[in-house]
Structure formats: C-alpha cells, structure tokens
Design a protein that fits this description.
globular, two-stranded antiparallel sheet, mainly beta, 104 residues, four-stranded antiparallel β-sheet
C-alpha cells in the first residue's frame, strides 16, 4: 500500500520570523508566512508535521512555474536542508519576484 504524501493541515499561525499573523489558506495547507515567506522545517511530506528539526526555513530563491505560479526554494538555518514549496495565492508577490530575479 502506498503512503499518502500530502496531509491537509491548514491552520493559521504567528510567524516565528517576522511576527505576522497568518490566516488559514482554505484551499490547501498553509505552511509559510505570506509576508516574509519563511516557514518551519516541520514536514517530511507536505502537511504531516513529522520532522523533528523545527528549524527556520528561509527563502533563498523562487522559480516561476506555469501551472503552480511560483515555487519557493528554502534553506533550513538549523540543519541546512533544502526544501521546495509552492507559493500561496496571497503571498507577497513583489518579494517573490525579487527572489526570482536573484535566482539568475
């Protein structure tokens, strides 16, 4: 039997990096701040909250994707892991564009 790779986990939270109040996303799982785009390294598979690291994931670049909008590339400040995540519809678009420009 194949393990489910996505668990919907759409809770609002207060960002540990910038302190912004981040509401639930409603159409998918909320996993990063819509203001500073930071996240926590808490998932192994999206939404499962099964990773014990808990380090701060900082956005290092973004890539435009014709089907997904933007994909954000993160680096964990605690363990150094690289993680990718789809941007949300209410993310700071100007910040995403700056990350895309810095990508090249």
């Amino acid at each position: 039997m194949q393990k489910k790779r996505f668990t919907k986990n759409d809770s609002g939270f207060v960002c540990r990096n910038c302190g912004a109040e981040v509401p639930p996303l409603s159409y998918s799982s909320r996993d990063h701040c819509r203001v500073c785009l930071c996240s926590l390294h808490v998932d192994i598979d999206p939404g499962d909250r099964a990773n014990d690291c808990g380090g701060l994931l900082v956005p290092v670049s973004a890539e435009p994707d014709p089907r997904k909008g933007f994909v954000i590339n993160y680096k964990c400040k605690k363990c150094g892991a690289s993680v990718r995540c789809r941007a949300a519809s209410d993310d700071d678009t100007d910040f995403l564009i700056r990350l895309t420009v810095n990508n090249g």
